[in-house]
Amino acid sequence: MPIWYEKYDELSARISQVREEYLVKCQSLSIHPTQALSEFSRDLVSRIVHESNWQEGLCLDQDRTRELVDAVFDDPGMVRGPHLDFQGLLSVHRTQVLRMKRQGVSNEELAALNLSRAHRCIQWIAHELSSRQTATLIQALKESEPLLRKYADRIPPESAAPIEAGMRTICALQADQCPAYGPLTDNIATTGELYKHLINVDFEELLHPFRLDYIHFLHRLTMMGILPPRKCGILRKVPVSVGDPDILFPPPAAIPPLMEEYCKHFPTILPSTVKYDPILTAAKASYDFVRIHPYTDGNGRVSRLLMNMILWSHHPPVCLKADKKGRHKYHTAIRRANRGNLRPLGCLISEAIIDNYTRMVAALTPPH
């Protein structure tokens, strides 16, 4: 019988099974699966925050953690516009952190508030990345439209049909009257207005939208009030080490180019263009970030945020088990990742995904 870190294929098959059970339950109750997942988010994030901070030695009881998660999710939408308003979000969060510090709250409570806010924000970041990558497709089609019209008589009908469908999709997106999603920087009221703005952005910027600013922003949120401000969202300038003598982190001079490459190759978020295994890709992004270790502290927490950002639109957010057995399994997975095998880390993520789907299915099952 294979041991736990050799069961990735078996776990992947199990994920497909429990995900289908979840979809069937939603259908039987006439609930859209995305809506149900959104409404489960508070409970899932509350558990993630509690477990993740526990791994950092920040122990806060689950009831107080849930209160802080609720405070974040109940916060109003703040500012709207075509780009995420990092400064607005940080300013509002900073005010809340300073008020709590004046009230004498513990570092554990601050860590829970911070990580809750960061998990709320990764949904907005993922949506922004998806929107900007959608805009590349709009740009490409619109720029080719004159040629398509000019040579319309030479295009076979079977090729013309999907092109025309794409043009109709562009029109629908630009006419979309749904409210723009997330706290943004300009006075953009609808999704259609957002796309009209984005198609004027440089194509290369849209094609590779993930920037180091996103990571700095998440680090500032996560460590606000815990680290000195000069260390929040600032790449480290000093060497770091951990207890394992076999691990050597990059020197400070190498971090900027390594992070530039990391952002350049960050996977696409747009669901319709995803060709990768999201679980192994999330494992790789999390592991690669920790191996660069760009900050003096908080790298583990940010790496798990990035992991959940990649899982966005595929599976519910997860936490990696924080009990003693779970910690041992995590260290085992990292040691194997150091040798180039990411499947054990993928196994841990898969186990957490299965657990979340199983709990959601149970919550959607009528009592007997």
Can you tell me about this structure?
With 368 residues, the chain is mainly α. The chain is 64% helix and 0% strand. Helix 2 packs across helix 3, helix 4 packs antiparallel against helix 5 and helix 5 packs parallel to helix 12. It has a single domain, classed as Orthogonal Bundle (Fic-like fold), CATH 1.10.3290. About 2% of the residues have low confidence.
Considering the chains and any ligands shown, give keywords for the structure.
Fic-like fold
SSE arrangement:
Layout: H1 8-28, H2 33-55, H3 62-73, H4 86-102, H5 107-150, H6 157-174, H7 191-198, H8 203-207, H9 212-223, H10 255-264, H11 278-292, H12 299-311, H13 324-338, H14 343-363
User: How many strand units?
Assistant: 0
> CATH topology, anyone?
Fic-like fold
Which CATH architecture is right? Orthogonal Bundle
Distance between the amino and carboxyl termini: 36 Å
Can you tell me the number of structural domains? 1
Q: Helix content range of the residues, please?
A: 55-70%
Ranges where pLDDT stays below 50 over 5 or more residues in a row are: 76-81
Quick structural summary:
By secondary structure, this protein is mostly helical.
